[in-house]
Every structure is written in structure tokens, then in C-alpha cells.
Design brief:
- By secondary structure, the protein is α/β, with parallel strands linked by helices.
- The chain has two domains: 271 residues, Aldehyde Dehydrogenase, Chain A, domain 1 (3-Layer(aba) Sandwich); 181 residues, Aldehyde Dehydrogenase, Chain A, domain 2, CATH 3.40.309.
- The protein contains 15 helices and 20 strands.
- It has a seven-stranded mixed beta sheet, with helices on both faces. A six-stranded mixed beta sheet has the order 9-8-7-10-11-19, sandwiched between helices.
- A hairpin with a 2-residue loop joins strand 1 and strand 2.
- Helix 3 crosses helix 4.
- The longest helix is centred in the N-terminal third of the chain and has 20 residues.
- The chain is globular, with a radius of gyration of 23 Å.
- The protein starts with 5 loop residues before the first strand and ends with a strand.
- Bound molecules: nicotinamide-adenine-dinucleotide.
Length: 476
Amino acid sequence: MNTYLNTINGEQVDSSERFESINPATGEPIGRVPVSTRPQVSAAVAAARAAQPAWAAKPDAERKALMMKVAEIIKANAPYLAEWVTREQGKPLGGVGPDQVPGARFELWGCEVWTQVPASLDLPVEVAFEDDTRRDEVHRKPYGVVAAVAPWNWPLLIAIWQIIPSIRAGNTVVIKPSEYTSIGTLELVRLISQALPKGVVNTVSGPGSVGSWLVSDPGIDKIMFTGSGPTGAKIAEAAAKNLTPTTMELGGNDAAIMLPDADPKAMAMGLFWGAFLNMGQTCACAKRLYVPENLFEPTVAALKELAEMMPMGDGMQEGTVMGPIQNKMQYDKVVSLVESAKAQGGTIVCGGTPKGGPGYFFPLTIVTGLKDGDRLVDEEQFGPVLPVIKYREVEDAIASANRLDAGLGASVWSTDINRAKEVAGRIQAGTVWINQHGMIHPMVPFGGIKGSGYGVEFGVDGLKAVTQPQVLSIKK
Ligand code: NAD
């Protein structure tokens, strides 16, 4: 079994301690990963600091061109990296038909696009004020060294979201992947580093303690964190000590609301993928669906039909549409939430019982008969289980959507766009989609409010988030 190494200052670095990465579809080890030591974390930050001034001083066109090379490397290595995503994260390579199911190949395509788009964006100087006496210009400057800490659900795509805007703006990066999905990220960084000066992108690997050394290092100027709320709170505490600005992309509990004029048949596929994309292990999946009484039966029937026809298995086999849950901790959480749903009076419409090993497979599960306050409704399941909740008045559904301390995404489904927009505007979430859910785009800012975090990624706003303004105030 191979050991996959960290990239620090352009060198491949091992550690004396290592751990095994597990394939969630088989339970088998697939490679070894170094546990970075504290001195290695410091060395990675020092390498990023040393590389940053020259990287930031490069002419903009040169930095853009290097980033386009990064996109080419991603494209050329997409088949190799997609296999790592499937083996390590569990999502199928492609599912039915070429790339119709957003699996690992789709994730790699996303990495390419989310590299090309920020590489093409600019942050021109803004003139904040000008008259006969003065001109005030706002320039955008890189922070310096960005610490990126990533989760396990879209390991390469989220790493790219953190790395690419940062380096586009002239920062350098040290990234720590999740301990559940390290190899793909270590390999991605090893490969893209071939196009970049040494020290521009560095990695460290290991458990949360390695992440805590990284974010509390005084050499870090900006933190980008994507992960759970409790970890986010610990990172905010560490960041406060050094007053390090942070972008927090945390968990969600997105509500999807069907309005009484929605069309269950036409909308079922969109609702299904909104809830079950990546086995529900997506921050902005629909995690509770509110349906009016008149549409309840046809909506549940249409979702059940789709859930029961999706082939589940080892994602390395072509034709697989659904993979396993990514890790044992998350699998146990899903099992516990489904058991509590049963105990709290829920009706299992489909799924509901673990498939048995090997691998962390759990069937696509739809539950009715629950209400606000029940665990499966109130807690983020982050798995292939959807509670469908009946409502009487639209006002009640809006109140239900807003009652939790989560505000990442939400969606409203209706044949009347104006009515949908009216409802959407009253929902407390960073993004409210209409007749779609979770449809992110590299030009459109994305981020949470309330307990789902602060700051945005993507587009011009995402690029601004990895820079700080500097005003040049000129007397005329
Ligand atoms: P997690 O918080 O358990 O881990 C995320 C990362 O933080 C891992 O790399 C982990 O090693 C590291 N970490 C743990 N403790 C740390 C500490 N004290 N200091 C620094 N780093 C530490 O999250 P997870 O289980 O990997 O991811 C699932 C969660 O992420 C879900 O809640 C999901 O909704 C959320 N998520 C949010 C978004 C978004 O964009 N808002 C995207 C994807 C996932």
C-alpha cells in the first residue's frame, strides 16, 4: 500500500506517524497518509510566507496564465483524481450515462471550471470618491498566507474553492484536507504544484489537532474553513486570539417549500437531487421538505419512485448512481436519526433499514409523519434521509423554515415565479433557490447566515473575500 505525501515548499514530505485511508464502499484501506507534526505545520506556513511576496508581485497576466495551466493539469489528470474521489469519498464515478449524475467526474469538471473562472476575474481599482480637490481609490491587496481547512463531502472541489481564489488574489496557501479524504487532495496539490512556484500551495494532513495548529499559527493572515458548526466555533476562538479574519462555510438544514400551486410530477426530479445529491452529504442539500396538504400524496409517491430506482453500490462500477455514506461516524449518526424518527412517530415510506456491510451503505430513505421539533427535522442529517412534512398555511411553512439556527440555503417551488419570489424573500438563508435547489455557480456568491457561517465564496465577491481593501487618497 502506498503512502501519499504532503507538498511543502515544492518538496514531497512524509512523517514518521501515518494513518490509513479507508474505502467507504468496502471498508478496506487504500493508502497511507502522513500525520503532520507541529514543526511540519510551522514549516508549511513559513514556506507559504516566504513565497508570498514574489507571488503577489508577479504581473497579473502571468498569475492568470499559471492558473490556466493549473486548470489544464486538472483536466489532464481528471480520470486519475476522479478515481481517488470515488475510492476515498464514495461518490460514484459518473452514474448512469456520461456525467449525468453529479459524481466524481463531475467533481473534477467542477474543479476545472472553478479554476478557470476565478483565473479570469479581475478586481479593478474602484474610485470611491472624486471631485476637484481629491481622488480616493480602493485597491484590493492579498492578505498574505491563507489557512484552508476542508471537509470530506466534496474533497477536491471544496479544496479548489479555497485554494484558487486565494492564489488568484496573490495569497499563498496551506491546506489541510479532512482526515477521511486526504489522498485525493494531496495528489491534487502535488500535481498542480508543478505549474506553480514552490511554496505557493502547501499541504499538511492529519486529524483536527493538525488543523488547530494550522489555524492558530501566528503566520496565518486569513482562514477559510468549510465544515461543521462546532468545529467552526473552535476555529473562531483560535482566530480571535490573533484577530485572523475568517470565512466560515458551516452546516445547513435547508428547507424546501412547495407552494400549493407547485407541480409535483414536473418538479420531483429537481426535488430528489436537491435532497439526495452526493447521498445527501452536501452542505446545501434540501434537508427538510415542507409540502401543502393538497400535494402531499403525489409528492411523496413521486419521490419514493425515484428513490427506489437508483442503483446503489461501489461507485467504481459504471452504472452506480448512489454510493455509501462516507464514514462510520456519519453512518452511525444517520442510523440514530432514523431510529429516533421511528420512535417519534415517523412513517418510513422507503428505505429506513441499514443494508449491512461491507461498506457504509444506507438506503435512500423518505420519512413522513414528523413535525418541527423532532430530531430528524431539527438536526442536520447530512445523509440519504429526507423528512417530508405536511403544512396547512404557507405562513406556517415560512415560520418552520426560519425557526432553526441554520441559514445556508432554502428553496421555494411554484408555477408562479412572482409568488415564489415573495416567499423566498422572507426566508432567512444565504441563497434561496426557486424551482431548483443547491444549484451553485462559479460567478454567483455563496455563503451562509445565522449558524451556517459568514463570508461568501465564488464570483467577484468571493475574490474580494480573500483580499483586503487599501485606500489611496490623493490630494489634487
Ligand atoms: P468537521 O468540522 O468535522 O471537519 C472539517 C475539517 O476541520 C476537517 O479537516 C477536520 O480535520 C478539521 N478540524 C477538526 N477540528 C479542528 C480544529 N479544532 N481546528 C481546526 N480544524 C479542525 O466537518 P466534516 O464532518 O468534515 O464536514 C461536514 C460538515 O461540513 C457538515 O456540517 C456540512 O454541512 C458542512 N459543510 C459546509 C459547506 C458549506 O459550504 N457551507 C460545504 C461542505 C460541508
